[in-house]
Amino acid sequence: MNLATQFETLGRKQLAIQDGIQLLTQVRSDLARTRSAADAWGTIAVLSNITLIPLNVVLNAFELKSANTMYQVLVQQLYGKLARSGTRLDGAWKPVLSLLKQAIVEELERKALTAFIPGVNILVGLSEDSLAAWQAIRLVESGNREIAGHLVKLERTIEEAKRQLVEFGIRRAEILGLMQSQARTA
Questions:
Q1: Could you tell me where the beta strands, DSSP code E, fall in the chain?
Q2: Using alpha carbons only, what angle is made at residue 81 by residues 76 and 83, rounded to the nearest 5 degrees?
Q3: Per residue in 126-145, pLDDT tens?
Q4: Sign of the CA dihedral 117, 122, 123, 127?
Q5: Helix 3-60 and helix 117-185, axial crossing angle in degrees, nearest 10
Q6: Nearest partner of 65 among 73, 55, 74, 56, judged by Cα
Q7: How far apart are CA 5 and CA 106, in angstroms?
Q8: Cα–Cα distance measured from residue 42 to residue 139, given in angstroms and rounded to the nearest whole number
Q9: What is the reported pTM?
Q10: What is residue 87's DSSP assignment?
């Protein structure tokens, strides 16, 4: 391959690498913005779980009775599906705590000690809500680590591309020098 062709080929490669660096830099910026948004939403998720703990302590002290209005029915249904103790809990702890609560309540009812049932509801609900908050914290931490890992990989890729760009530039300068030398001697 002659020097002019090599020079042009390296020039095209340099342009491609420069375009790639620009795209990777944009991806890095987008990922950094995504990380900021994820941090904000993660904080909201954790705080939401933690905020529900005292609310559920109060609500677990008594069973919600019948609702009077459509709004109350809607709130009761949403609370029952999305916020009640144990609804946000995943994994093996959910059935364990549910069975434990059921066994204790049945035993208290059998012994006519129903005055202690609200205390059991509070303690089990507190355990469920605390575990749900802990799971939310772990999920947020995991997501943050994953995004940080991707940012590190992107940074390495960008630095490698910049290194290649410099190498091609050096090689291209060498070829240009050879071409100029040949032009002077020709």
A1: none
A2: 80
A3: 888 888 888 889 989 999 99
A4: positive
A5: 170
A6: 73
A7: 87
A8: 8
A9: 0.67
A10: T
